[in-house]
Design a protein that fits this description.
Elements lengths: L10 E4 L5 H5 L5 E6 L5 H11 L4 E5 L8 H13 L4 E6 L1 H13 L6 H6 L10 E5 L11 E5 L6 E5 L5 E6 L9 H20 L5 H18 L9 H21 L3 H13 L3 H14 L9 H7 L14 H11 L13 H15 L8 H9 L3
Parallel strand pairs: 1-8, 2-3, 2-4, 4-5, 5-8
Antiparallel strand pairs: 6-7
Helix pairs in contact: 3-4, 6-7, 6-8, 6-10, 7-8, 9-10, 9-13, 10-12, 13-14
Length: 374
């Protein structure tokens, strides 16, 4: 069991997005709102909420699906040119990481290439408020962002000034606009990071409380063929599981499956939640955590009615495959249009991120793991 060392900023508010302006006024008065254009009227509503408190708001929503450093160049130009003193990120995980990088680099004149290479580490950034519309971001409580370079498509985990990360604002009603299938893939993404955190060699008794609670909560929702209800109570459970999962990730750090899912999404442009759906049983069937005794307890954590009585006796990977089948979620990378060549490139790119931290993994072993999901 690892030692426990806790320092988990920032402040978290779970409630109506209408309160966002009341909090933002204490952090700045010239706001750059970086948002998913696909959110439509939601973006306009959030912009109006900020403006109603007297804030000047500039919107950046020209975000490509990959949200690479090409897009970061544009968002940085807008942040610097408008003299923004507050960044608000609104949307899914790729948009949030783009917003984090913008807040990090907007003050100090640091080249993006140097930042990606680790040759420059800004010590001062703009205040940043994060609004995850799907409720999830495994880096939520870590002062880091995950960036993909737009030419060669390699990815890096880059630091952000801890004091920039001011507030996480969670309004579960954002989920009301999402399809049922997207919600289930979102839950599989939360489950991937929770399971990896639970199995992490850096896990502690406290992180186990967070990750096991996340696994239990999200599994109780995945165990139904259709959502076990709609509205605030149902969506709040999804957000609650994402919050527990993010706390666990903050305590344990990121793992190999998390990095692989981000790198593959950045390289192929495929949705990270869909990739996580495929990756989850692969995580349990392959050599990520081959000798971890805690694997055996996962099936029990995932057991909830109305699943079969023998569910507890199934291997954990089979539990995850039951979830895939129950909700007709992608179960192979090939179903997402990902090729064997892209798997090979993903293994190479992910290895460059993981190698300094996980010496037991090789590029060949990462490729073999990905092939198991092909």
């Amino acid at each position: 069991m690892a030692d426990l060392k806790m320092n988990i900023p920032p402040e978290v508010i779970i409630g109506s997005i209408n309160r966002l302006g009341d909090e933002a006024v204490y952090l700045g008065d010239r706001v750059l709102l970086i948002a998913d254009s696909a959110l439509g009227d939601v973006v306009d509503d959030v912009k109006s909420i900020l403006e109603s408190r007297g804030l000047s708001v500039l919107l950046f929503s020209d975000i490509h699906p990959e949200a690479t450093t090409f897009t970061l160049t544009d968002s940085l130009s807008m942040a610097r040119g408008s003299h923004a003193n507050l960044i608000v990120g609104l949307g899914g995980v790729k948009t949030l990481h783009l917003a984090r990088a913008t807040a990090t680099l907007a003050v100090e004149k640091v080249f993006i290439e140097d930042y990606l290479k680790g040759a420059a580490r800004p010590v001062k950034g703009l205040p940043y408020i994060e609004v995850p519309t799907s409720g999830r971001n495994p880096f939520m409580f870590r002062p880091e962002c995950f960036l993909t370079e737009h030419r060669e498509r390699f990815s890096r985990i880059c630091p952000m000034p801890e004091e920039s990360l001011k507030l996480i604002f969670l309004d579960p009603l954002f989920l009301d606009s999402y399809s049922g299938r997207y919600l289930y893939m979102t839950m599989m993404d939360i489950l991937l990071h929770s399971v990896e955190g639970y199995l992490s060699p850096r896990a502690s008794f406290f992180s186990d409380v967070q990750t096991s609670q996340a696994i239990s909560l999200v599994s109780s929702l995945l165990g139904f063929r259709k959502p076990g209800g709609t509205g605030l109570d149902h969506y709040s459970l999804i957000y609650e599981s994402a919050l527990f999962s993010a706390y666990g990730a903050a305590l344990n750090g990121w793992g190999a499956a998390t990095v692989l899912s981000y790198v593959m999404s950045g390289y192929t442009g495929k949705p990270k939640s869909a990739i996580s759906s495929v990756m989850l049983p692969v995580l349990l069937e392959t050599s990520f955590y081959p000798k971890n005794d805690k694997k055996a307890s996962l099936a029990g954590l995932c057991h909830h009615d109305p699943m079969p009585r023998d569910f507890r006796e199934l291997p954990p990977a089979e539990v995850m495959r039951r979830f895939q089948g129950l909700h007709e979620l992608p179960s192979r990378f090939s179903e997402l249009g990902i090729t064997a060549q892209q798997l090979s490139e993903t293994a190479s790119l992910a290895y460059s991120v993981l190698e300094p931290h996980m010496s037991t993994l090789t590029q060949e072993s990462l490729f073999a793991i990905l092939q198991a999901g092909f």
